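Reading a protein record of the kind used here takes little practice once its layout is understood. An example of such a record is reproduced below.
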Amino acid sequence: MKQIRWFKPFFFLLVLFASFHLFYDVIYENHLGEGTDSDVLYPYLFAKDVWNGKVSGWNLPPSTTLFPDGMICILLYPLTGSVYSFHLVYGFFVFLLPFIFAKSLGLSNSLSTLTSLGFLILAGLDPNQLGQFYFPSFHGMTFILAAWALVEIERWNDENKEFPKQIRFLFLMTMIWISEYWFFVNLAPFLFLYGLVRLRWKIIIPIGSTLLGFFIAKLITKGFRTFGIGTIGTESFELIPKLKILLTLFFQNPIQSFDGILISSTKNPFINVWWERYLVFGFLFFIFSIFHISKKNIGKDFLFFLSPFFTMVFLYGFQIEPNIRYLYILPFGTLYFLFRSIELFSWFRKIIPVLLLVGLFVFYLSIHSDLITKIKTGESRRTNRLTCLEAFNPHIVGAATYWPIKYIYAFSNQKWTLVPFTKDGTYYPWVANTSWDGESKNLNFSSFVWGVTDSKENLETWKGVELVKECEGWYFFQRNPDQ
């Protein structure tokens, strides 16, 4: 019966995703058609190399996102036949996450479903920003990690003889340390405070598991390096020194610290708008809650409401520029508190979700042709780039800046070798496999007779090259043999 209860919302979410799939297609084409977001393609190409037995040489990003993103991608690769189908299936998994997280926070099935649908629509309307959520390695999976941790905390006192909770939690924390540092910036403070309130002194065990998981993760990442897979350890970020500076500044000059956090939070206009929406719907919910008889989950909701504030403190302290991919909690929280407010009024609970769903579908139909146009524009730009590429000989090794390389490797049917360089002509295999470059990685930039860059300014910096073709934001160049 439990499996059936979960299957019904899963099936309904699948129907909704299929019905509103053009929003996802707009997101996909914005990043891989209109733009050439090569970071999106790291998990796809990593999974491809895993199946081809060529993982040695990979340099992984600081947050490796191997769990669960990488594992899902490795499983998906042989089951999907194209870059699009691969990301479409992955996108559906991510589509489920707002539902799962909202459900773990206590929202009803119907309103949790609308949270997932609402997030997809918002992302489809602003694909360049919120659309990042639906791609692997862009930190969307923090939602399911948080939901898992939340369930473990809530069931900590339950008797469970099947599998020790301490082992499950240790495994979860180890995987998070290996894969998703942003979890500790985004949602760990909320989970810590909630665990402290719920478990009291027993919180020592989850904290101990978290610390032990950190050291196990360090050992595992060292193991990766023995297999030729490069990782970036936490020591590279100088987190402890930065944290000490942050605490010192807070104690010595709290007003200056507060002003710095406020400026950092509002500097980005897009994030500032989402802060305004989040605060409006959050405060409205708590005002409605005052006059509501039932105070169920109100403490949890308040602690959750504080999450993005903690995130901004950490981002400011670690000197990281705020980006919506670190603050998905703002659009999610806006939807969550909106629907929590609706849930407080019993006469709204059944009729509002139906009316909203009908209204959203009518809205979808009204912009259907605009969505199709955006999708076709992205498809056309990708086709044009690859057509321009075919003017060059794939058997001759070329040079390229960061963005075009993984894009070409993913979408072109021919086998190319493009060696990555910075605008200064320095070899730069960032989030890439050095084995792709072979012996060519030892050559100087001036040795390559042709290449491609996404910045025309680079051509002015590089001596002895001339532009031969400009194509959809890409600039193909050849080296003048006389220089």
User: Anything to note?
Assistant: Strands lie at 398-400, 418-420, 450-453, 465-471, 474-479.
